[in-house]
Amino acid sequence: MSDIRDIGWEERIEGHAFPMRLQKYLARAGVASRRGSESLITAGRVEVNGIVVTELGSKVDPLEDEVAVDGVVVVWGSSHVVLALNKPSGIITTMKDYRGRRCVADIMPCDEYPGLYPIGRLDKDTTGLLLFTTDGELGNGLLHPSHHVTKVYHATVTGIMTEAEAQQLREGVLLEDGMTAPAEISVISKSRNRCVVELAIHEGRKHQVKRMCKAVGHPVEHLDRVSFGPIETGSLKQGVWRKLDDEETAALYRAAGLA
Ligand code: URA
């Protein structure tokens, strides 16, 4: 017990902060939403170590304390989560910005999921799917080049990309940091002086899609990520996040080589 308590409030073990507020504990254990958990507490339905607790500020240590709801003991299993955000433009991919710029932490439920961090980055002006997790092993696995996790982007570019230019991108183009790996490229819509190109790549170099399109003469005007491995943005609205369900989470672990 002392080793856990000694590390203090801000310290973390495997992404969990100890001790944590009772309503956060209940929400993270999947008993109810944070609001629902607060109602359970104030209704006197929650016991900690056999004593009814109605104080919302009460803290528990998930490894030491026994919490029960309506007399049923709550099981604290692996509470790692994966969340998907449809990132809006104008937001930087960092959990803290010392210059006060808007960052993804302003949108994500960092309080509810201590240790949450983004899996990779999207540029400030890029929109679309950005995944977050509390599981460092999952994040590392998904970003590791050996796992070839495919990311699909829709790039609105200036001018109409020809088939020959698309073929160059498929085969690889030379950027300042070397040749790009083979990619799947298709022009999915055209207007008079711009077109939308779908690019499926598995590398994750800085500004990669923008640099690839520019290398064949088509600067990117707008970039949107529509999928990351098995997960798609789908109908998720910009600026909104959701928790992945068990099936989606399992598919991501498989993609990361952590079946
Ligand atoms: N490639 C880019 O150029 N920018 C992004 O945000 C993501 C991929």
From TrEMBL:
The entry's keywords: Isomerase, RNA-binding
Protein's UniProt keywords contain RNA-binding: yes
One GO biological process term: enzyme-directed rRNA pseudouridine synthesis
The species this protein was found in: Denitrobacterium detoxificans
Catalysed transformations (reactions): a uridine in RNA = a pseudouridine in RNA
Pfam families: PseudoU_synth_2, S4
GO CC annotations on file: cytosol
Family, as annotated: Belongs to the pseudouridine synthase RsuA family.
Protein name: Pseudouridine synthase
EC number: 5.4.99.-
InterPro entries according to UniProt: PsdUridine_s_RsuA/RluB/E/F_cat, PsdUridine_synth_cat_dom_sf, PsdUridine_synth_RsuA/RluA, PsdUridine_synth_RsuA/RluB/E/F, PsdUridine_synth_RsuA/RluB_CS, RsuA_PseudoU_synthase, S4_RNA-bd, S4_RNA-bd_sf
